[in-house]
Structure formats: structure tokens, C-alpha cells
């Protein structure tokens, strides 16, 4: 099981230091969150809290995850990065293809594209995209982005996107993996059908095991049970070595963690305290040999 360090709601001036430390102590990846803006009033519930409220406010710091990946990639050499997850529905697929391809190239193929739809109608409408039929539109977006990133002269004629032959160069020298987020049946089917992996929001170990079981069945139904597939997990109730062993046994391949939060330091802890927490976490879980 690999370990990824998540950086939601981190101060922007800490990201470079966190990336350097993550690579030094043995994390495989950095998971980069996505938030475009904070609307004063929300017209829909946030789907990953019991009461539908957001876990952040108007002053919480965010940075575009693709820009962050490029900046953090410039100061590292082996650390990988992936969006966790980028909300596609409010964006344009051709512009995203240009950005994703650029990040893949400048990081030397150390980038994975975690994708979701988005939950807030305001993000769609205020960015000029319709909220209706968002799922079908995102399905087409994934097809378009993958097609363009594959290189060469391509064209696409779908229900929502239509363009004649074009080419973006250079194409990444290796395929960009797509990790599909979401907990609904539709999202799980999308992940099994087109994804190189599935990424969770906050879930218990029991919920993760159940969901991985569903995805394993779906992969077989789509004839993809023999392809490499990542199960990226954010677990909220397993914090010791025995618990991590349970997650690995359940099929988790990538454990997404925030060491400083696990130690009760909070999102706004000083950089040095976060780095110290990352080192302690690595000693306990990454270098302890429990997976040998």
C-alpha cells in the first residue's frame, strides 16, 4: 500500500516545503484538492458532511491544483501528484487538456488526473456551464481530454462537444492516469468503465471495503478485472498499523493521509510542525516494515 499526503486548506506558502519533505521521507504522492471560489450562499448541500455544510469558509486558502502540481514538481524529482479531485463540470475540456498535458510534461509524467463532476450549481452557472446533464457532459469531457492527450491530429463529434481535427503538442510521453471520484452508483460505474482508479472522499474502513467490493464486481462486468486499478482511500477511523493493515487487506492500494491533522495540529499549523508530523508518520508507517 502506497501513501499519499493530502494538502487541503494548507497555506499556499507551505506547499513547496511540504512537497520537499514528502519526497524526503518516502511518500509516493501529493493529493491536490480543488475549489474555485466560496459562494456566500450555497443552493445545494455539500455531499460529504452529515449536515451538508462546508468544512471551510471564505478565507480558507486554496490554489489551483494544476498550478500547484507544476510548482511542486519543479522542486522534486520522484514525488507524484494527482488532483483529488478536479471538478470537471464547470470547465472546458480542451482548455483542461492543454493544462493537464502541460503538467504531465513539465513533471516528467509524475501527474495523475483525479476527476469528479462537482456538487455546487453556482460553480457551473457562474463559470458559464450548464448544471443540467452534468454527468453525461463530464463523460464526454473525459473522452475528449483522453483523446487529445493521446497525441496526433484528432477530432470529436459528440452531443455536447464537437470539433474538427486539431492537435496539441507535445503530447505526454506516457498516458496520464485518470482517477474517478464519487460514492454514488453512477460514479462507481464511471470509475470501473473508464478509470485507471477510484478515489474516495472521507469514508470508514467498512464503507471502503464495501465500495471496493462493488468496484471489483463492476470491473469484472465491464471486462476490466485484469487491468491495473488504483483504490485511493481517505479513511476516517483507522489510524494505527493494525488499522492500515486492515485497509491493505480490504484492497486499498493508496492511503491518503494528513499526518498533522491526525496528531491534532489542525490545518493551519506552522510548516515546521507539519513537517515533523510527516517524519513521525513515515517512521511509523512507511519505513517500519509492517508490509514486508
From TrEMBL:
Domain of life: Bacteria
InterPro entries documented for this protein: Lucif-like_OxRdtase_Rv2161c (IPR019921), Luciferase-like_dom (IPR011251), Luciferase-like_sf (IPR036661), SsuD_RutA_monooxygenase (IPR050172)
Annotated signal sequence range: none
Recorded GO MF terms: alkanesulfonate monooxygenase activity
Domain Luciferase-like per the UniProt entry, residue ranges: 12-230
Name the record gives this protein: LLM class F420-dependent oxidoreductase
Gene source species: Mycolicibacterium holsaticum
GO biological process, one term: alkanesulfonate catabolic process
Gene3D superfamilies associated with the record: Luciferase-like domain
Keyword annotations: Flavoprotein, FMN, Monooxygenase, Oxidoreductase
Amino acid at each position: 500500500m502506497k501513501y499519499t499526503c493530502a494538502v487541503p486548506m494548507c497555506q499556499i506558502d507551505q506547499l513547496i516545503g511540504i512537497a520537499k519533505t514528502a519526497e524526503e521521507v518516502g511518500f509516493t504522492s501529493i493529493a491536490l484538492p480543488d475549489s474555485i471560489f466560496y459562494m456566500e450562499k450555497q443552493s445545494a448541500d455539500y455531499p460529504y458532511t452529515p449536515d451538508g455544510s462546508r468544512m471551510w469558509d471564505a478565507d480558507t486558502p486554496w490554489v489551483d491544483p494544476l498550478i500547484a502540481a507544476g510548482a511542486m514538481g519543479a522542486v522534486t524529482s520522484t514525488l507524484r501528484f494527482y488532483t483529488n479531485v478536479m471538478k470537471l463540470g464547470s470547465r472546458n475540456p480542451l482548455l483542461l487538456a492543454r493544462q493537464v498535458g502541460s503538467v504531465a510534461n513539465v513533471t516528467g509524467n509524475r501527474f495523475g488526473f483525479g476527476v469528479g463532476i462537482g456538487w455546487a450549481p453556482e460553480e457551473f452557472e457562474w463559470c458559464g456551464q450548464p448544471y443540467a446533464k452534468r454527468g453525461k457532459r463530464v463523460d464526454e469531457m473525459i473522452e475528449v481530454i483522453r483523446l487529445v492527450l493521446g497525441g496526433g491530429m484528432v477530432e470529436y463529434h459528440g452531443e455536447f462537444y464537437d470539433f474538427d481535427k486539431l492537435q496539441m503538442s507535445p503530447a505526454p510521453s506516457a498516458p496520464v492516469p485518470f482517477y474517478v471520484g464519487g460514492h454514488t452508483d453512477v460514479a462507481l460505474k464511471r470509475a470501473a468503465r473508464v478509470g485507471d482508479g477510484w478515489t474516495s472522499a472521507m469514508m470508514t474502513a467498512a464503507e471502503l471495503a464495501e465500495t471496493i467490493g462493488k468496484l471489483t464486481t463492476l470491473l469484472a462486468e465491464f471486462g476490466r478485472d485484469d487491468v491495473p486499478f488504483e483504490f485511493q482511500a481517505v479513511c476516517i477511523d483507522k489510524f494505527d498499523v493494525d488499522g492500515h493493515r486492515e485497509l491493505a487487506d480490504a484492497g486499498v492500494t493508496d492511503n491518503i493521509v494528513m499526518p498533522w491533522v491526525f496528531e491534532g495540529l489542525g490545518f493551519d499549523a506552522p510548516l515546521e510542525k507539519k513537517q515533523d508530523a510527516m517524519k513521525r508518520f513515515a517512521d511509523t508507517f512507511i519505513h517500519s516494515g509492517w508490509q514486508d
